[in-house]
Amino acid sequence: MIQLLDKIHHKDSKNFFLIAGPCAIEGEEMAFEIAEKIVKLSDKYKIPYIFKGSFKKANRSRVDSFTGIGDEKALEIIKKVGEHFNIPTTTDIHENAHAELAASYGVDVLQIPAFLVRQTDLVVAAAKTGKAVTLKKGQFLSPESMKFAVQKVFDSGNDKVAIIERGNSFGYTDLVVD
User: Fold this and answer.
1) Which of the four, 5, 123, 126, 177, has the lowest number of CB atoms within 10 Å?
2) Chain-centre distance of CA 94, in angstroms?
3) Is residue 4 within 8 Å of residue 160, measured between CB atoms?
4) Which of 77, 55, 76 is nearest to 66 (CA)?
5) What is each CA distance from 58 to 24, 62, 71, 96, 172, in whole angstroms?
6) Cα end-to-end span (Å), the chain
7) Does the pLDDT value for residue 37 go beyond 90?
């Protein structure tokens, strides 16, 4: 993934790379404050960094939970953060139309949430934007099952794909990440 993003700082580093930011974009000041602190740390320790903020949180447990400040408003903030700090950005998408919308705001990496990683139309929509795609492996999926999601990206003409490991669940409560 690092080689696929020209904007990423410290891409020749031997360190892991970090994807971090606010769970959801709640406002410009907060997003800039978080990004500034992480950029300083990533520069200090030479850690490749991608700013992540969700423009919309669709996976909430209650219908009246906070989902965002508005799609375009949040995407504009993500765009400004990326441009200001000259860093790549990512956001998760939940609907096919979100792929092109997020790409139109310059988001560098489209992330497919774990609970949607098997949705062919969504994965294909993300891949067809030409942006890098990250697929969050659901704890309910075996590592071997992820090859099918990756193949959907490749079959859509995009070779910029990475998997985000989330661990595996055994039973209802035993989550193991190693």
Assistant:
1) 177
2) 11
3) yes
4) 55
5) 10, 10, 11, 13, 23
6) 21
7) yes
